[in-house]
């Protein structure tokens, strides 16, 4: 394959990955709306969306595999292909988390709606900003933007910790709210996982751009 | 690099991955013991273990990357390298799940120990069998063994569903047990995630051995 055609196919791969990221973000938006409105049709839409994400994942893996197989990519392209393989898997797992949330919304459909000491919408919006920012860092090959995702992740983790505490407190004080509180706890954990996947993506972008592996930097520092 | 040396390095990579899998299995065993005994020292051991898993993950990624960069691997080797990159990431995430469980055990240390309608040990043992079987399928390049992991996963999912139901029921009946029941619910979800990662590994082995992508087979069948 001529070099120019190879780069054209790399760009096609990037475009497919962007479409995949758009599907993952749409899933988060949609499931947040499903939760707010208790809307089962939106839950079904999240499930349909996940099928599209799943088949997209296979296609992207195949494209990355073909490019690895047909060419001997140069260092920077090779790192890009490795990053794509990992980002692809994280995007699919964001879809899975959204399906988990949709499942919770579906199971909760017959429960009375009560006021809960948690702002799920705010948490979901932040998680979605993390995905968008991580993907932007990929598009612009900008490790600094990617680093900002890592900071947002601390914020989501803290929101999840606080929600867990407040909702457990409510459960013990008012057992009749246990099921609703538990659903909210699980949904918060799922959103926190979405944030983790966005963080993984940002780390993969940093790896690609800088050629350095920054994962687990803390733990390595601690070991020395 | 001569072909024979390339294969020697592929074998070294496989050995490193096996050591990584052993660490992941040890983490599950250890955290189950920590839960049973409420032992904080064992929790600390799980955290230490995770640092070893994290640095192992980086080393394996680097070895896979070097082999991709230096050689133009043949189709079967290329599929193996892609499988290793993914399995490596799943093993690291099993370590993360164990840390989450250890965190729950740590937070629960001051709660009264009560009888709960769940057999966490049984669920954890099954999850560990799934990891071991998935790795065995890799060692023996045996897709049939890998398929048996997929069946075990249905079983773990069902155990998690039942635990969730029973523990929620307990919470509502006896609010004073809410914190313990909630901890158990979250631990079961973590173990169910361990099972999912083992399933991912089995699917990657099947991809490697058969050259076919069997992920999301159901969803594709449903789409047609």
> Count of helices of chain A?
7
The biggest beta sheet of chain A, please?
A: none
* Alpha carbon gyration radius of chain A: 19 Å
**What is the global morphology of chain A?**
elongated
The low-pLDDT segments of chain A are 218-224
Structural class by helix and strand composition of chain A: mainly alpha
How far apart lie the N and C ends of chain A? 46 Å
Q: Percent range for helical residues of chain A?
A: over 70%
* Share of residues in strands of chain A: under 5%
Tell me what the structure shows:
Two copies of one chain form a homodimer. Chain A has 224 residues and is mainly alpha-helical. The first copy, chain A, is 85% helix and 0% strand. The first copy, chain A, contains seven helices and no strands. The interface between A and B is large, with 37 and 37 residues.
List the helices and strands and how they pair.
Two copies of one chain form a homodimer.
Chain A: H1 3-37, H2 40-70, H3 75-107, H4 120-139, H5 143-173, H6 178-210, H7 217-223
Helix pairs in contact in A: 1-2, 1-3, 1-4, 2-3, 3-6, 4-5, 4-6, 5-6
Task: Please provide a brief summary of the model.
The structure is a homodimer of 224-residue chains. In chain A, 85% of the residues lie in helices and 0% in strands. Chain A has 224 residues and is mainly alpha-helical.
Output the keywords.
disordered C terminus, homodimer, 0% strand, 224 residues, elongated, mainly alpha
